[in-house]
Design goal:
Blueprint: H1 3-16, H2 39-46, H3 50-57, H4 66-75, H5 80-95, H6 109-118, E1 123-126, E2 132-135, H7 137-144, H8 161-167, H9 169-174, H10 178-195, H11 200-212, H12 214-221, E3 230-237, E4 241-250, E5 257-262, H13 268-290, E6 294-295, E7 302-303, H14 311-323
Antiparallel strand pairs: 1-2, 1-5, 3-4, 4-5, 6-7
């Protein structure tokens, strides 16, 4: 994942996606041998020399100023996220950071409190690689009910949302418009990769997805950028059927993010999510009751059922009785 190559690929790809008529460049009916704009046409729109732009696209210039980059971004019709991505790639070019293993991201106590406070609102905590660091009961039920609910607690078993979207059949069935969800995942990963070029583990993930999924490789080569802060998706849940959710990303700065899914109050989707909450709550109660105790969501230790002693207490009483039999 060379930063210089990424910058050149990005410029060339986005230039090829712009049609002359989109930016008011006359073609006079000529047959064009290359898709999109020519280098000299893009350079003219950006107000830079064709030779300078060519060197920049070929990775031979590392000194592009912020003003030049903004001019090129304007010529390419980039939005704010794409403009920021372009600047990030240029920064990678200049500094050429080496890949290294970064400190793991962790769930803060405040995030755990938020998961508890959200109650029946589905929520998951993701790191920059999209590894699932935590989820509440409804987050697990909505997105990954087919997986072990305790998987995020073990580093080696943590699900990766990007991997699930591309490599897990459950997610292909879960999203009615799977390609839209997949493109959003790729677009967001591109932003993150440019912001954290030193993160070796992130680039390992990108390499694995490229090797295992031709669809991911194709979308990655398309160089589309998308900040996944809020999006609406139609889902086809295996338990409650179709529902439409708004997925929002909550972030307080560097570190993990919280993704929540909400529905419009009183809508059929709200009803479906309510049914899912009831179903998962009943399933949790049945499972813990069969195990002989109730689980307190706020604690890691089991809580004995009302009116009964904990198993360890009953064991101690029986042991004490066998050691000291009552007097006749």
């Amino acid at each position: 994942m060379n930063g210089k190559t990424q910058l050149g690929d990005f410029l060339q790809t986005r230039r090829s996606q712009l049609r002359p008529e989109d930016v008011g460049v006359p073609t006079y009916g000529e047959r064009r041998r290359v898709p999109g704009l020519r280098r000299e046409e893009l350079a003219l729109l950006a107000g830079v020399s064709a030779s300078y732009y060519t060197r920049l696209e070929q990775g031979q210039s590392l000194s592009a100023s912020a003003e030049v980059l903004d001019a090129i971004a304007g010529a390419l019709r980039l939005d704010e996220s794409e403009r920021r991505y372009l600047h990030d790639l240029a920064r990678v070019d200049r500094h050429r950071p080496r890949g290294r293993r970064t400190a793991p991201e962790r769930v803060t106590p405040a995030m755990r409190q938020l998961l508890d406070a959200l109650g029946d609102v589905p929520a998951i905590v993701l790191d920059r690689r999209t590894d699932v660091l935590a989820w509440n009961r409804m987050g697990h039920a909505l997105f990954a009910g087919h997986l072990d609910p305790g998987a995020p607690r073990t580093t080696a078993q943590r699900p990766n949302m990007a991997g699930l979207v591309f490599l897990d059949g459950h997610f292909r069935d879960l999203y009615a418009d799977w390609p839209s969800k997949a493109r959003a995942v790729v677009g967001n990963l591109r932003l993150v990769a440019a912001e954290h070029p030193e993160d070796a583990a992130l680039h390992v993930l990108l390499g694995e997805l490229t090797a295992k999924s031709t669809e991911f490789a194709s979308m990655w080569a398309d160089h589309r950028i998308k900040a996944c802060t809020i999006a609406t998706y139609e889902m086809r849940h295996p338990l409650v059927g179709p529902l439409t959710v708004v997925q929002q990303t909550l972030s307080s700065g560097p570190g993990p993010i919280v993704v929540v899914a909400t529905t419009q109050a009183g809508s059929p989707s709200w009803t479906a999510l309510t049914l899912l909450a009831q179903a998962t709550s009943q399933a949790t109660t049945q499972t813990t009751t069969q195990a002989g105790f109730l689980t307190d969501p706020g604690q890691a230790r089991p809580r004995p059922r009302a009116g009964g002693a904990a198993p360890t207490e009953r064991h101690e009483r029986r042991t004490a009785t066998s050691r000291n039999p009552p007097h006749p």
